[in-house]
Amino acid sequence: MKTVIVGAGVSGLTLAERILASGTEANADITVIETADAPGGLARTFSVDGYDFDIGPHRFHTANEEVDSYLREILADNYVKISRKSSVHMAGRYRNWPLTLASVLGLPLLVLWRSFIDLFNKPKIPEILSFADFIRSRYGNNLYDFFFSGYTKKFTGTDAENLHVDWAQAGVNRAVIDKRVKADSLLSLLKGMLLPKPVETKFYYPSTGGIQTFCNLQRQQIEEAGGVFRFNTNATGIVEENGAVTGVELDSGEIIPAERVYWTAPVTILYPESGLTFINTLLANISLKSEISVNNYQWCYFGQDNLIFSRLTIPRNFRADCVPHGRDSVVAEITCSSDSEIWKNPESVKDRLVHDLKSVGAVRGDDIQFIDWQKIPDTYPVYSLDYKQRLSSIKPPDGLYLTGRCGSFWYNNMDHSIAQALSIARGEDYRKDFWNER
Ligand SMILES: Cc1cc2nc3c(=O)[nH]c(=O)nc-3n(C[C@H](O)[C@H](O)[C@H](O)COP(=O)(O)OP(=O)(O)OC[C@H]3O[C@@H](n4cnc5c(N)ncnc54)[C@H](O)[C@@H]3O)c2cc1C
């Protein structure tokens, strides 16, 4: 069977590796088409002048044993285990995330008092439809107004009232990461602060290079097993006959015949009429001449709408040798749409970016060596209130599997993309909702 996989991100690579590993002749003919010049997709690493910059904070953490053992099988000895140090910048200060008692005590008294009142006076919302409904019902109006509303608008460009409640899975659960840490309501947040359980969240990270090392190792195994890669190759559509897929079309006009296509590129390339949309991320990879001590977190969220970035990542806190000795670096994430001025002309926001970084102490200003801008399209699916209807209007022909973060329009993390690929490779239902497994 001739199989084409569109996209060499974690999903496409895991599929190719697993299908080839099954060792049957019917599964031996696999071509992976990738628009970029390297594997990795959203889990790519940009290496510039001795600095490794991932696309924001990328770490492997999973409660799924099958995924865990797959990760360790691919990484073999090439990983380190790191304790998480994440942060949130609120009311002018860096605070531990998930919140601790010490970190909230410095919040304005009015915010604390109102949150306390909200504990006994939660808004009654008959049907939880939007992200705003979800946050208000769990954390109260005060925390919604103080942090979530502004952060969500800045991050997604959409009001929390207009986002489907599913965004909460992404916005809150993903930020907490470790399901042993309970932060799913105001009360559990409070309990977690007053009676903290000693939960140390550890994650895997490659012992050399950045997160892309994992994908490079997968690529090596795929090539050794006879899989073929075509990089710098842009798929524009599929060809079908009598309701079944027969090939993949490239922008050169070439058609690659296929009886089975796993499509992990954005689903909107195939189905623009679905009206589904993604947000893009502009990355500013910043190298610094010396270490900045305030940057002692791995990543930090910034909800303030006067700051251009929504999150900063410090690569040396993943592994010290992600930066040259004695140096430092910061990755700033700026989410935006393709028609925004920021996306079209990143240099136009350079002065504002540096100003904002200085205002939170993340750079001094005169210590910046270079800023490497990277435009990463389609980083987050936008869960509009009607996204489920839009998604269900898509009817793929036989032999076409829409999968991965952008292909299935699920807010996958790498572990979810891997779980999805492992189950597809075993021939199970690929449309399963992987979120509920967390
Ligand atoms: C800022 C950020 C931080 C994240 N942090 C974490 C984290 O800490 N932990 C975690 O587990 N996950 C994290 N994730 C999520 C993780 O990156 C993704 O879930 C995972 O990489 C998705 O892999 P994928 O293969 O499903 O999709 P993708 O990586 O999107 O792969 C799709 C591939 O298709 C290619 N492609 C697109 N269009 C075409 C075309 N027309 N023709 C050919 N190829 C095409 C793309 O270049 C890409 O390589 C993060 C994501 C972001 C954006």
Features:
single chain, 438 residues, alpha/beta, FAD/NAD(P)-binding domain, protoporphyrinogen ix oxidase, domain 3, Polyamine Oxidase, Chain A, domain 2, 3 domains, five-stranded parallel β-sheet, 14 helices, 19 strands, disordered C terminus, binds flavin-adenine dinucleotide
Description of the structure:
This protein has 438 residues and is of the alpha/beta class. The protein folds into 3 domains: 2-43 and 63-82 and 206-274 and 384-437, FAD/NAD(P)-binding domain (3-Layer(bba) Sandwich); 97-199, protoporphyrinogen ix oxidase, domain 3 (Orthogonal Bundle), CATH 1.10.3110; 278-381, Protoporphyrinogen oxidase, mitochondrial, domain 2 (Polyamine Oxidase, Chain A, domain 2, Alpha-Beta Complex). It is 32% helix and 24% strand. The protein contains 14 helices and 19 strands. The protein has a 7-stranded mixed beta sheet. The protein has a 5-stranded parallel beta sheet with strand order 9-2-1-13-19, covered by helices on one side. Helix 1 runs parallel beside helix 8 (212-224), helix 2 crosses helix 14 (414-425) and helix 4 (109-120) runs antiparallel to helix 5 (131-156). The longest helix is centred in the first third of the chain and has 26 residues, at 131-156. Bound molecules: flavin-adenine dinucleotide (FAD). Flavin-adenine dinucleotide (FAD) binds at residues 6-12, 33-36, 41-43, 55-59, 234-235, 264-266, 269, 281, 333, 379, 404-406, 412-415, 417.
